[in-house]
From TrEMBL, chains A, B:
Homodimer. Residues 42-297 form the Aminoacyl-transfer RNA synthetases class-II family profile domain. Belongs to the class-II aminoacyl-tRNA synthetase family. ProS type 3 subfamily. Keywords: Aminoacyl-tRNA synthetase, ATP-binding, Cytoplasm, Ligase, Nucleotide-binding, Protein biosynthesis. This is Proline--tRNA ligase. Catalyzes the attachment of proline to tRNA(Pro) in a two-step reaction: proline is first activated by ATP to form Pro-AMP and then transferred to the acceptor end of tRNA(Pro). InterPro entries: aa-tRNA-synt_IIb, aa-tRNA-synth_II, aa-tRNA-synth_II/BPL/LPL, Anticodon-bd, Anticodon-bd_dom_sf, Pro-tRNA-ligase_IIa_arc-type, Pro-tRNA_ligase_II_C, Pro-tRNA_synth_II. It catalyses: tRNA(Pro) + L-proline + ATP = L-prolyl-tRNA(Pro) + AMP + diphosphate. It is found in: Cytoplasm. The keyword Chaperone does not apply. Its main location: cytoplasm. It comes from Hallella colorans. Consists of three domains: the N-terminal catalytic domain, the anticodon-binding domain and the C-terminal extension.
Length: 493, 493
């Protein structure tokens, strides 16, 4: 057994340590010398690239175009949107100087005190301010609307406690920023993009999500409504996986962005913003993987099929390769990414463990006996089930198997999730059961006081008012006051 | 005529102003409130995305994988590679604090003096230092080599004089960083990637380039050799469009990166780095465009074909659309990106000028007479030639036309370039003729003194020792000393 795999913490022993181990051992990411910033390694980045490509195509299908706005934002911009200061400007990286010089002894370098900026610049924690300052010049008339822009970029928030992918000071994301003539159109856009996120999570990541709307406390700074998709991890905790915000006219007012409507009268523009980040990698890893390593959905796996020969000598290897090469071609033609690992510096057992650790969805093994019998061994990573199949027609089998794995791991995650959603009406019971994780559907009186008490008592937070759940009025389990609807309460990442 | 077009400066009047005008009026980019940083608008970004996609596929075909390294680099890293300090660390953006707080009157925000970093962080001007600090952990044995990594990211150099795309403080680029067991392999890699850049420039951008090696003065800080591709703009100036560096063991020594060779002995690792940036957009714009606006190579044009109906009433428009819709489908199936502009808030003349300004390679126009005659008007943007063609079979014609335009604009640029490359052996003559631009092939004695004198007298620099040019020994035109080869001397961007 490969050393990497042997050292992987088991989920039951320490779920959190299992996650950290897996990120490192599966070559997804590692820590860097800069506090809270990670290095995304090629294998991890290849998964992120696949996510990006799928999301980007989905955005574009709704009419969104990409653009690029500056990394640095003048400090004064943050002061323009009052809630934004409190929400974003505080824990940010601040650029104060623009030059270094040699130290007097000539051996080191130091900041040149004469190269101090007149106004400090902030590394973007999010770009609403810069973008709305720009939209002011782009929007004159209703004919210029809507504007549907997105950017893929890095952002920075000076986080105190960080974990790879889940919470890092620098992270990669996309941020969509749209401008509309009416409130209705903006609200529709915000919900549409939430739908895109949910579609992507479920149909690409195979991660079931609950769509809903955030409570006021959990809203994005400057938003009138924040919509969210919440996924459940294998420890029953929630991971907020994407958010979409209806920003009303807040940013338009802060940056004085008006348009002439059809009656030639000026109106403030309506806004949305929406984003997902490398945090999605955390959800992907945590939802499907097991004690043997990663389990990746075939649609996002950098390598979908690995083929490993087992041979005693060069002659056998040559005979196996002669069978495998046309199969490789056939699979490639089907659009399947396949790797033939005939490297001779690692034993088959090491390779098996390594590709399991890396979550390659399907493994084919061919040995001398297979060669004789015209067979091949096929293993699926999700269930680790093996079968010996006729070599003839195996490409078609693999193609169907990949579809099946995608479906199976989604169903498995959905069942787990559904089995851990509970309606609960008793606060004492809630406090006890929340320790084991899960999403709790509880009536809420709508006050921040109740929300704060739950958080203080249990560390759990209101994740959202879920969509598509049949609501009934009831009684808040904490305050005893009347409640209009149930919300989902859970501990979260 | 559209106002935007009317205001476009003519190349002959002021080439530099023509470029700036074009970037703004064709909606490619605009300046931002942050000094030297630009906003890349959706139309400009769509071209950059096409460049990225093509380059990325070419890199990957050579075995390169993408990864992501932190934006911020500890100041001390730059002190480790002596030449790098002088070359890169000096004019950089420096992060000194990590928190803002409200001012005492509560109305503004200010930097929290208590949140001062122990060590300042530099926004990456390039990532050799961070990456080689990382490679130290990735490389133990010859089996770990080669490492072929690339990242697409933003970088920042505090430039004093900036121009959109050509020189900006923040820019987007890719930086490849490879690690090898031998000097030969690293040198081969550096040359291979230069070849990829030349291939991309010529076959995608339709921009002919001279490949060559830089003089010591013009080398990248920390490199033993810098290879370059140099393109000629329409004013005869050179634009360095991509560079690839053989870094020897400099960074391995600075960051102590060794590997055990096959004999189990430690050796320092050999390195290359190579990059192209949004600067390529500048070359693309300047090489092909004319006084009517952009001319884009079909392979990189976001819209390859625009179709404009001319109708007197709704009935005519409907009849035209009924003909156009199946054509749109046919073109789309051929992989051609096509836009049907039947918007009724702009006159056809405005549309014509606007799509010329934006460089759409092919324009189709259909009016009432075409409808009667079963014809369509086809215009190619590069020559502005129009023909009336039978509507039947026009999709095939357009497909061939796009290929022809790609070839024609490359040939035109190549001819211009070749007509402006001169061998020159007389310094007085050189000083006179360099004023009109062009690449001058001159014997050079190899000294930095001669190089400095030429620059001081004429602002021209040695661009490279060109590859594939039959060299002869001769006499340096400035110093009169013996010279082993001719170099290309030109004024540059």
């Amino acid at each position: 057994m490969a050393k990497e795999l042997k050292d992987l913490t088991k989920r039951a022993d320490n779920y959190s340590q299992w996650y950290n181990d897996l990120v490192m051992k599966a070559d997804l990411a590692e820590t860097s010398p800069v506090r809270g910033c990670m290095i995304i390694k090629p294998y991890g980045y290849a998964i992120w690239e696949k996510m990006q490509a799928a999301l980007d195509a989905m955005f574009k299908a709704t009419g969104v175009q990409n653009a690029y706005f500056p990394l640095l934002i003048p400090k004064s911009f943050f002061a323009k949107e009052a809630e934004h200061v409190a929400g974003f400007a505080k824990e940010s990286a601040v650029v104060t100087h623009y030059r270094l010089k040699a130290t007097e002894d000539g051996k080191g370098i130091t900041v040149d005190p004469e190269a101090k900026l007149e106004e400090e610049l902030i590394i973007r924690p999010t770009s609403e301010t810069m973008i709305w300052n720009t939209y002011k010049n782009w929007i004159k008339s209703y004919r210029d609307l809507p504007i549907l822009c997105n950017q893929w970029c890095n952002v920075m928030r000076w986080e105190m406690r960080t974990r790879p992918f889940l919470r890092t000071s620098e992270f990669l994301w996309q941020e969509g920023h749209t401008a509309h003539a009416t409130s209705e159109e903006a609200q529709e856009e915000a919900k549409k993009m939430l739908g895109v996120y949910a579609d992507f999570a479920e149909n690409w990541m195979a991660v079931p999500v609950v769509q809903g709307v955030k409570s006021e406390t959990e809203r994005f700074a400057g938003a009138l409504d924040t919509y969210t998709i919440e996924a459940m991890m294998q420890d029953g905790k929630a991971l907020q996986s994407g958010t979409s915000h209806f920003l009303g006219q807040n940013f338009a007012k802060s940056f004085d962005v008006t348009f002439l409507n059809k009656e030639n009268k000026p109106e403030y523009v309506w806004a949305t913003s929406w984003g997902v980040s490398t945090r999605l990698m955390g959800a992907l890893i945590m939802v499907h993987s097991d004690d043997n390593g990663l389990v990746l959905p075939p649609k996002l796996a950098p390598i979908q099929v690995v083929i490993i020969p087992i041979s005693k000598n060069a002659e056998q290897l040559e005979a196996i390769s002669a069978k495998i090469n046309p199969l490789m071609e056939e699979l490639t033609k089907m659009g399947i990414s396949v790797k033939y690992d005939d490297s001779d510096n690692k034993r088959p057992g090491f390779k098996f463990a390594d590709y399991e650790l890396k979550g390659v969805p399907v493994r084919l093994v061919m040995g001398a006996r297979d060669l004789e019998n015209g067979t091949v061994e096929v293993m699926r990573r999700d269930t680790l089930e093996k079968e010996i199949l006729p070599f003839e027609g195996v490409a078609n089998h693999v193609q169907h198997l990949l579809v099946d794995i995608q479906k199976t791991i989604f169903e498995k995650a959905r069942q787990y999730r559904d089995n851990h959603i509970y309606e609960c009406d008793n606060y004492e019971e809630f406090k006890e059961r929340i320790k084991d994780g899960g999403f709790f559907l509880c009536h809420w009186d709508g006050t921040t006081e109740t929300e704060a008490k739950i958080k203080e008592d249990t560390q759990a937070t209101i994740r959202c008012v879920p969509f598509g759940y049949e609501q009934t009025e009831g009684v808040d389990m904490v305050s005893g006051k009347p409640a209009k609807c149930r919300v989902i309460i859970a501990r979260s990442y």
